[in-house]
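Handoff note, outgoing to incoming analyst
You'll be picking up this chain. Sequence as last confirmed:
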Amino acid sequence: MKRRIALAARTAVLAGCLAAGVTAGYAAEPLTLDDYYAAALKRSEVVATQVELIRQAEERYNQANATTLPAVNGIASYTEQEPTPFGSSPTATSPNRQKLARVSVTQPLFRGFREFAALRQTKALIGAQDRDYLQARVQLFKDVAQNFYSILSTETDLKNLDEEIRQNLKREAELNARVRIGRSRVSEVLTVQSTISTLRAQIEQLQGQRRVAREAFAFLSGLDASTPLNDTEAVPAALEPLADYLVRLELRPDVQAGQQRLTAADENIAVAKGARLPSIDLNGNYYLERSGALRDVDWDVQIALTVPLYAGGALESQIRTAVSQRTQAELTVSQVSRQAEQEIRSAYESVIFDRSQLDALERATEAARKNYEAQLRDYRLGLVTNLEVLQALTAYQENQRALDRARYTAKLDYMRLQAAAVRRPVLPEGAMR
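Most recent structure output, in case you need it:
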């Protein structure tokens, strides 16, 4: 009797620990997957870094645009040269002391059109960086979904194990009563106690996994690790045709980023080729102070033509480099597109398999439950052994645990499919241009 009380007390403590572990701090409102993602989005340094990279790309565009606008500079100098030999005097054209102060304006007129190609290139790179930002959001959603369902699956598994222990404790109490009247053997009680100990060891292992998953949750969301989760997602009974997902391939941010970089690589070739063409600049000066014979001349204007004749082969090398970079960008687009298509196909097949597995596990779990109930009735009639009852109970509980895990796996795979087809998360308005 004391042994049963002690076992019951330990089980009560264990159940309390599980409840505290799963429900500690649950005064907070339970978080849905979208709530969790919103919290992680505010905290993510990766996404914030992408925002800064967009700003840097925009500033590079401003810098490229500045090359087409006039450059205005203020220039001042004072020159003192060696005095003229004894007996002579400085000339009016070249005095010993010379002062100069002027405002200089330079307006590029023609640079081989490379400045406009550079503008288009930097604009394409802004678009690519913007798509990288959206891709970072999609990747964060995948990480959040992985952690979200990992926590829910582990906590549900803990509840199932707790229920299995409770069922075994009932078996132990019933067997102890039968031992006292000589209808069961002590070895049968020991078998149940061994099973309970094994289940408690599994609980300890799962609690460790749960703590790790909860720490990852706190890291991603910035919220308390014990914040409750509320699963509101559902896997549809029938998926849309695969073609409906593949048609969204071109909407993926990573594919669009690659295409934007390919456009930038095309413009880079134009920039390199433009360096071989002549340059024409309009230069103007307004003199505030001047020495020598031209001291009364206040301004001058000049048109300068620069023709590149020979640069040691550097210009041709730059063109070949730009062509190679364009080929590299094209290969990257091809690789990213193929990987994106493969991701969608794999995720789609995973969800199809998950649905089939769920149907099979639901039938198996129901059959195992009925078998356990039948074995329990037959045992009380003396038709089967205690070992057969325990085996039936274990089979039922294992099927139930597998079914619950499969449900969360199916939801996670469905979220991955949605993310791969750019249906989740909901991206900012206008982002899918």
